[in-house]
Design brief:
mainly alpha; 3-stranded antiparallel β-sheet; 7% strand
Length: 165
C-alpha cells in the first residue's frame, strides 16, 4: 500500500453499525465512568445531580445560581432540591452578591471540596488510564468527537469555560 492510499479516510467508519457501536460504547463508558462516584454519593444519600453541582461549583467558586442553571439545563425547582441538601450537609455555601444583592453566589466548603476531590479523583484516574492506553493522537481525536457532540449554539461558550485552566 502506498502513502496516498494510507492517507485516504476510510468511509466505512460512518456505517450504521459503527455509529450504533459508538452510541453503545458511550452508554457503557458513562456507566463505568460514573460508577465509582455513584458509590460514594449513595453513602451520602446523594445522586448524580449532586455530583454535577459539586463539580461545577468546585470549578467555578462564586458562580451564581443562574450560571449554574444555565450549565446544568435543569429547572429551578430541581436545582433547589439538590442545592438545599448540599447546603444542609455543609458542602456548599450560598452568599449574597456584592454588586447585586439578589444574586446568590455558590462556593464549596472545605467539606464540599474534600467530597469533590474524592469524586473527581476517581474519575481522573479512570480518564488518565484510558488516555495513556489510547495515546496522544487518539486523545486529540476523542476531544474532537466530544466537541462535535455538543450543540453548536453553546459550543464556543462551553469550550471557553473548559479551556480556561
Amino acid at each position: 500500500m502506498n502513502s496516498q492510499q494510507q492517507a485516504r479516510p476510510n468511509p466505512l467508519f460512518l456505517r450504521d453499525e459503527e455509529i450504533r457501536q459508538g452510541i453503545e460504547l458511550l452508554f457503557f463508558a458513562y456507566r463505568d465512568f460514573t460508577s465509582d462516584a455513584d458509590a460514594i454519593l449513595s453513602r451520602h444519600g446523594m445522586g448524580r445531580a449532586h455530583h454535577r453541582v459539586v463539580h461545577f461549583v468546585g470549578r467555578r467558586p462564586g458562580m451564581t445560581v443562574n450560571e449554574l442553571l444555565g450549565i446544568l439545563r435543569i429547572t429551578k425547582q430541581s436545582l433547589s432540591r439538590v442545592l438545599s441538601q448540599l447546603i444542609e450537609e455543609g458542602l456548599v455555601v450560598q452568599t449574597q452578591g456584592t454588586r447585586d444583592r439578589r444574586q446568590r453566589l455558590l462556593s464549596l466548603t472545605d467539606k464540599g471540596t474534600e467530597l469533590e476531590r474524592q469524586l473527581s479523583g476517581l474519575q481522573r484516574a479512570r480518564v488518565t488510564k484510558a488516555y495513556r492506553e489510547a495515546g496522544a493522537e487518539a486523545v486529540a481525536g476523542f476531544r474532537k468527537v466530544l466537541i462535535g457532540l455538543i450543540d453548536e449554539a453553546g459550543r464556543e461558550t462551553i469550550l471557553a469555560s473548559v479551556d480556561k485552566d
